[in-house]
Amino acid sequence: MRINIHAGHNPDGKVACGAVGILEESTEARKVKDSLIKILKYHGHTVYDCTVNNGMSQSDVLAKIIKKSNAHKVDLDVSIHFNSGRNDYDGDNKNGGVEVFIYSEDSKGRQYAEEICKKVQKLGYNNRGIKINNNLYVLKHSLSSAILVECCFVDDVDDAMLYDYDRMAIAIASGILGENLLEAIVTKDNVTLHKSESLDAISIGNLRKGDKVNVLRIRKLFIKVRIDGRTGWVYKKYLKSL
Fold it and tell me: Where are the beta strands (DSSP E) in the chain?
């Protein structure tokens, strides 16, 4: 696939930055975006970063994003955002959750939007589902099939407690690729669980063929996993996504 990815606002602290609460939208959107780009590239896809950091206003940011995005012929355009409006700073044991916007009912991005919502839901978030909006600038002016992902709420402590930018990126990548990258299975016996991201790192145990692990981070050669309360790094070629 060929994919555009962009964080939807100027950086935090600049004009036209994103929402701010417990989380800061512009900062976290860039973390998710960077991790998502790496994951998609690791899986062999062509990805363009169309994020804008020098917009003079909200309309200028949006126009510059579209100019960058429409310069590429892609299969999908993905705008990363964070939601606001919950105003829950004390916690009510309910999270705001994830939603994905598409331009119309018959948008080609619908299948990706549905899968992203399902995969982020696996992280524990409420699935708010697909939203139709033909007035959002990026969706309206993109020449490619476009989706706008509202990862979770910046002003909900329950969302913030669940949030991890790498896991969010893995969930979004899973939705785009139609795979479950959040979990993996060990493909051979006596695979070393390393303390850090290196074959020379201290071993903290061994994994058996068929062991199922939760994926926490995806890097070029290693994957950080959790199994039976242990967390460590496994050489990538010994894991297969479920």
Answer: 2-7, 46-49, 76-83, 98-102, 127-132, 146-153, 183-186, 191-194, 203-207, 212-218, 222-227, 230-235, 239-241
Count of helices and strands (H, E) across the chain: 6, 13
Tokens at 96, concatenated: 């705001």
Closest CA to 116 of 141, 153, 80: 80
CA distance linking residue 82 with residue 19, whole number of Å: 7
In this predicted structure, the answer to whether residue 72 has a pLDDT above a threshold of 90 is: yes
Radius of gyration (Cα) for the chain, nearest Å?
18
Question: How much is the mean pLDDT over the chain?
Answer: 97
For residue range 83-121, list pLDDT tens digits in order.
Answer: 999 999 999 999 999 999 999 999 999 999 999 999 999
Q: Among positive and negative, which fits the CA dihedral 73, 107, 159, 228?
A: negative
CB-facing half-sphere around the CA of 206: CA atoms within 13 A: 6
- Give, for 65, the enclosing helix (H) or strand (E): helix 58-69
What is the pTM assigned to this prediction? 0.95
Report whether pLDDT(242) > 90.
Answer: no
CB 120 within 8 A of CB 99: no
What are the φ/ψ torsions at residue 5 (nearest 5 degrees)? -130, 140
Write down all domains in the chain, each with its CATH number in brackets.
Answer: 2-177 (3.40.630.40), 183-241 (2.30.30.40)
Q: Single out the residue of 231, 238, 184, 187 nearest to residue 205, CA to CA.
A: 231
